[in-house]
Amino acid sequence: MSKQLRIFSAVLLLMLLGYGAYIVIQNRHIVRRAALDIGSGSIKCKVADVDTQKGKIVRIVEQMWRKADFKESIARNPLRRISPSVADDGIQILKDFVAKSRKLRAKEFAAVGTQAFAEATNGEEYFHHIRKAVGIPAVIITQSQQARLGYEAARQHYDIPEHSMVVWDIGAATVQLTSKTRNGTYLYSLGEEASVGFKNYVIREIQHLDPNQITSPNPMSPSDTTKALEHARFLADSTTSKAMKEHIHHHGGVTVVGIGPVHAISVMNQVLGKKWKPETASFPDRYTVEQVREALGRRTGMTDSAIGGDFANVQITNLILTLGYMEALGIRAVLPARINMADGLLVTGEIKEDQSKRIPSRSPAETAPAPSPAQ
Fold first, then answer.
1. 26-59 burial by CB neighbour count: b if 16+ within 10 A, else e?
2. What is the CATH T-level fold of the domain 159-337, as seen in this structure?
3. pTM for this prediction
4. pLDDT tens, position by position, 151-186
């Protein structure tokens, strides 16, 4: 072997060793995590490879979602307790999701519960049971923490300037509008009447029926729809902070990202009249206020059986609630996203302190400094 060839081989070997060491160092920061969003109406789980140094999702490995009627159960119980049957169903769903996540080699787990569990008189007890029965960290978070996780979830998927993105989450129990100001502080508005609560309002206050006995407002008359839309506009106007309204109006190029099943499944599917497939180029990436209005006109008067599906009783009222917010706040279009708090929790990691005792009864609007990046 010539001297030049030996030198070349040695240099190549050093380069390969260096690259290998680089890959090893890089992989040290990649952790497979499972994050569980225990919502008021469903449980979501995402398994992903996460770069813990950069606080970024590298790859989504699996996504799971199941209905869980926590909010409905609490609302129907005079003592505001989660019923034993709903509690047991929730534990079984969590066990199933965790078992599948372990098969996918998830090494770190974290779960959070939304404000509905703080409102339940046995919510704290239930989360203690989750930690023991399922064997994962699980805590109840405040609505403002929920808003931040939702915002960080959207940042993982959209390259939009922070102050130009508003993240809108409509859950079963609460509504959050979240953004950031130019100086990096969080800006959010928090509403406490969402998908299930709004549906129950229609049954109780507009149709004058008992939501503990009647679980669906359908079929809704045109008069019911008009009155419900007036209430939705009132909710949007009264619970959205002045700062958030100004933020939306002063940034003409603001992009509203709608996260969670209400936007990405309920509203988008009804607007299209078929299942939305965002991965297919022929499908639109957003819905407009005109499209929501048209879908509502087309579907008003439908029965639950005609609507179909497990969530038939909230589909029409979801359209009304969404349209009311869009009209009241001047939101022309929404970019729906099949993401949820689990995406934010993946990069944040375990939240150690249970907030259930610190959650105020109502906090309509807040601003807060941004936390330091997740490590």
1. eeeeebbbbbbbbbbbbbbbbbbbbebeebebee
2. Nucleotidyltransferase; domain 5 (3.30.420)
3. 0.82
4. 999 998 899 988 899 999 999 889 999 999 888 899
